[in-house]
Automatic annotation (TrEMBL):
Gene: rsmD
GO molecular function: methyltransferase activity
Residue spans crossing the bilayer: none
GO BP: rRNA methylation
InterPro entries: RNA_MeTrfase_RsmD, SAM-dependent_MTases_sf
Keywords: Methyltransferase, Transferase
Protein name: 16S rRNA (Guanine(966)-N(2))-methyltransferase RsmD
Highest taxon of source: Bacteria
Length: 194
């Protein structure tokens, strides 16, 4: 059973997505990831985007640990319903409606752009399904890059057997870490003039 690891809602169980096609982030990987993000001061007050959210586990964890707002983007009907349930749980425990869910294709969501007056995202999780091709992943990264704050962090989670994403001109990798069958890539906006 997946759970919220720490923060205001720490220890709360999460609803899992039934069926095939999703691979939840393990608690071990989640603990390591969030330990790193907290050491980078990337959570408190940050606007978070969880693309291909699945159960919404990463976004909800961010909310529990002090994110200012969290958007869970999921297209699959069953997964989006689970995201909604987990968002409601987190919002109730935290006492604020900071986690929101949108049922949408990631590409279309990003192509619409940032809503008027909204701050850019400071932390983005991307845990796409295995069938997503490297070309499709590159397109999503390209759409995402101009919608990030200058000090944003993008975390891409994939199978350890997949190649490193092709980073668009606006993003550059600064770290990667392998946990068994999972690999995390960390990227940030490219410095002007690079």
């Amino acid at each position: 059973m997946s759970r919220i690891v720490a923060g205001a809602a720490g220890g709360s169980p999460l609803v899992s997505v039934p069926g095939e096609g999703t691979r939840p982030t393990t608690d071990r990987v989640k603990e390591a990831l969030f330990s790193r993000l907290e050491s980078m001061n990337m959570l408190a007050g940050t606007r978070v985007l969880d693309l291909y959210a699945g159960s919404g586990s990463l976004g909800v964890e961010s909310a529990s640990r002090g994110a200012a707002s969290v958007e869970l983007i999921e297209f699959n009907d069953k997964a989006a319903a689970v995201c909604q349930r987990n968002a409601e749980l987190a919002n109730k425990v935290i006492g604020s409606k900071i986690v929101k869910v949108q049922r949408a294709k990631v590409e279309l969501f990003l192509d619409r752009g940032v809503e008027a007056g909204a701050d850019p995202w400071g932390l983005v999780f991307m845990d796409p399904p295995y069938p997503l091709t490297e070309t499709e992943l590159s397109l999503v990264l390209e759409l995402l890059a101009p919608r990030l704050s200058p000090f944003a962090v993008v975390v891409v989670e994939r199978s350890a057997r997949t190649p490193e994403p092709a980073w668009p001109a606006g993003l550059e990798r600064f770290a990667e870490k392998k946990y068994g069958e999972t690999r995390l890539w960390f990227a940030e906006p490219a410095a002007a003039g690079d």
